[in-house]
Amino acid sequence: AGQLTAASVLATANGTGGSGSGGTGGVGAGGEVGALLTVRFETTDPAAVAIGTLTGTSTGTGGAGTTAGANQYGRAYLEVVGSDATFADVNFTVLGDTPRLDPVGDPPVPTPVAPSLVSVDGGTLTVTNPNTLQLNTDGDLAIEARNGGAVQTVNLVASSGGNTVIRVDNGVIASSGNATIVADGNLDVQGVGSGRLEAAGTLQMDSGGNFTVTHISAPAGADTVRANFIDFTSVGDFSADAGSRISGLNSIDIASS
Question: Can you tell me the distance from the alpha carbon of 181 to that of 249, in angstroms, rounded to the nearest whole number?
Fold first, then answer.
């Protein structure tokens, strides 16, 4: 069985609007950067991927004019389906002020671009270097592990200018070091079954909106969130439903303004 290997992969999808020539500048819309890693072609055999550094950048820059054009952000994604992927470092950056509008449907309706996404479905995503799995977007963000999938990092750093959803549906998102997740909007941790979000060190999660933790069909005594040190803050309300369990092995600090 073969393996895909590379020292580094760089993906760039920047969009720059044209000059308005005295009028309104053109819209600059960022594109999509990322990777989809699936089972081997025409089989159910898992693929093996080993890459050093994966870097993705998407920036929307409006054109100059009497009124500058809109800076529309795009999307970054890393999806692993039934396969095993190992990276030394992963770094995604998505920049802009408003979401890119894509035509959807018939007749087409302008629709905001989907959230940036890291998803593992029945496989593993391993990031080995301390330099982290780093995800920075001015839009919404989702990180998920499903169907026995695992996201394994040394350190996880994720920030979004919008809402962030962490979903562990019978999967695990785990950092052997620290994890920092910041959302300017709402922050939701959604556990299903044996799903768990964990960090061996400090798990820091900050929300500029509401912060919710839920867990559906959790086994008895199962943790939804677990870390040595837990530090949660929210500008809005903080809530955890009856099915969820937050375990700080050393300390838990939760603050809501």
Answer: 19
pLDDT of residue 42: 65
Task: Work out the widest C-alpha separation in the chain, in whole angstroms.
Answer: 66
Cβ within 8 Å of residue 245, ≥6 positions away: 215, 218, 221, 222, 223, 224, 225
Q: How many Cα atoms within 13 Å fall on the side-chain side of residue 251? A: 7
Hey, what are 134's tokens? 């780093």
Q: For residues 178 and 172, what is the distance between their CA atoms, to the nearest angstrom?
A: 15
pLDDT at 237 over 80: yes
pLDDT at position 2: 59
What does the pLDDT look like over 17-61, one tens digit per residue?
999 877 889 999 999 999 999 887 767 777 789 999 999 999 999
SS (H, E, C) 198-228: EEEEEEEEEECCCEEEEEECCCCCCCCEEEE
Centre a 10 Å sphere on the Cβ of residue 245 and count the other Cβ atoms it contains. 17
Q: How many residues appear in the chain?
A: 257
pLDDT digits (tens, 9 = 90+) for 102-112: 999 999 999 99
CA–CA separation, 218 and 225 (whole Å):
12
Task: State the pLDDT at residue 90.
Answer: 96
Cα torsion through 10, 15, 19, 23, rounded to 10: -150
Q: What is the pLDDT of residues 136-171, one digit of tens each?
A: 999 999 999 999 999 999 999 999 999 999 999 999
CA distance 82 to 45: 8
Which candidate, 94, 95, 99, 124, places its Cα nearest to that of 113?
A: 99
